[in-house]
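Table 4 source record.
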Amino acid sequence: MALRTAGSVLVVFLWSVTVVLGQDGWSVTYTTQSICTLKGSTVEMSCSYTYPSGTVTTTFWFTKNYAGGNPVSLSDDPDYKGRVTYHRDMKNGHTLRITDLRESDSSTYMFSFITDQTRWKYTGDPGVTLSVTGFQVEVTPEQYSEYKTLTCITTCTLSNPNPIYIWYKNGQHLDESTSPQYKYSVYSNYEDSYSCAVKGHEDLLSPAVCVQGQRCSRVTYTKRRICVLKGSTVDISCTYVGYYYTTSSFWFRSDTTTPEDLTTDPGYAGRVKYPDKVTGTYEGLSTLRITDLREEDAAEYRFTFKTYNFEWCHSFPGTTLSITDAPKNTSVSVSPSGEIVEDSSVTLTCSSDANPPVDKYTWYKKNGASLTGSEKTFLITNINSEDSGEYYCEAESIYGSLNSSSVSVDVQYGPKYTSVSVSPSGEIVEGSSVTLTCSSDANPPVDKYTWYKKNGTSPKASGQSYSITNIISEDRGEYYCEAENTIASMNSTTLKIIVAGKQTSVLTAAVGIIVVVLVLILCLSGLMWFRKKASTSTSNTRDTADDGQGDSSPVYDSISNMVMTSTAAQTAATDDQDDVHYASVHVSHSKNQEVPLYSTVQVPQSQKEDEDVQYAALKFNLPVVPPAAQSAEEDSSVLYSTVNKPRRPEHNKPRTKKTRTQQTQNQEDLNTTNPEPRRPEHNKFDKNLVYLDLYI
């Protein structure tokens, strides 16, 4: 009970909201608010609607609500199954169509719609009132009278303006008039019957009535319209009454010139029979059964009978048979049929051959789910690129369904997402080359690209790519492109180009640094080695001064790593050295004077007989001495240094002593040589000699 009450409150709230929304742009306007039509006919109810914003997602008509208060769409109502169709147009119009109307269809019909901007349904009030009626022949006066007045009446005033009434007597067409009253008074007898209809709906005529009594001749069809499936079997029946007993009866098609019994028609051979045919009675039921129905069997079928002095006329409307199949020839059309541009509106229409008409349409997008809506048309407003694709519909009736072939919807739009990329993407060095590329999404594709430099006076280039070779500093700046197709154009964001100056490559610089470091390391290592050798050795220097005559006096320096002895002993020792290293140092006191220095260094040797002699000469250019300080003649002072490597004592080998005379002779030979330092002759010493000359 509480749930039912809550539902009622919600319904009242929704209705109150719709009233308020109606004042703010929400409305439903019906073409007419009341309709009176005939039983068995077809009716259409139309309306237009407005809404402030958004897109309509659902539209429907209803007459009643569910228990919870929500309205029931007629397309889902079992009482209207197979008889209801919706039609929606592009201008916010909607039409409801109901076929084979019944008196029970009399009700108030309302339209409702929902948009994507609100979750509330808007329902147009008060709706359309539909009244379904049938014709009746009214006979007056009812009591005994020789002549009677006939009037064709309905329970409501027909919405059809100025109807034309048709009158029948004993199945024979009598007259047509705009007045519902028959223009003649009829004689009251017991044999004749009368009926009426309106033009255009002859098959919806009134039942035949007797002017006097209830024994008049008449035929009443069970159904005026029948629709059956192709290949099936149908029974068409009627009841008849004869004032006299019948002598014969049969069924025939109304489209034949001369009525012909169907049982003798070659087109129905083997497919037609009268299962309950009886003659010799005053009244009865007659049934026409047709098997294996074909499409050409669709027609109006009538019944006639004869008595000994009477024949039921052939112009009296009978039963219309429709042969149907599952929907066929289902197709989709697109409107407008030309170019579809983004933000425009497109209507898809589903068409199908079906009888009875298709009562439900379902729309699909290929490779996607079903779309909202079950109407013959599908409207897409503010269409965009995401709506591009292939669409098809499914047409469904009570006898089956059929899908249409798909149609392509190609939404065209101007360039979007336009951007610029640069290659290579790293540092741009002066003298190199770069390529700018413009990208954009468009349909149809972009057919023109134009390149610009920000604050420039004219375009730089055209084409999707723009290459700058041998780039210079003047090329730096911000660049952008313009993409254009037949729909529109769009500029990209700017891309800043920074040009760096020429630089030595990192690899070259690294190699240069490594080489310099290695050279410094080698120089320092050599210097430390020489200093270490000098600090660990002892030296004896004998200096011979020049007497001022300008002659050169050699100075000898004998260094040994052994304990220093007297000059004589040292002289004797030096005579015994097998390996002699000579170092010659030249020091220039002036432009014309050289002082060679000789140094002999003794280094210990191994037991091997390798006799290596190393010789080194060094030359130093000293500052120039003023002329007054120079002697008249050029002096040359020579300093000799001998380095002896000490060696291990050689066992079992007698040491050879050199005499003082030999030493003096060697000294004299050295003194008489050219002032330039010279290397000792190899044949005077041992065979393995090493010399080193340095001139600074």
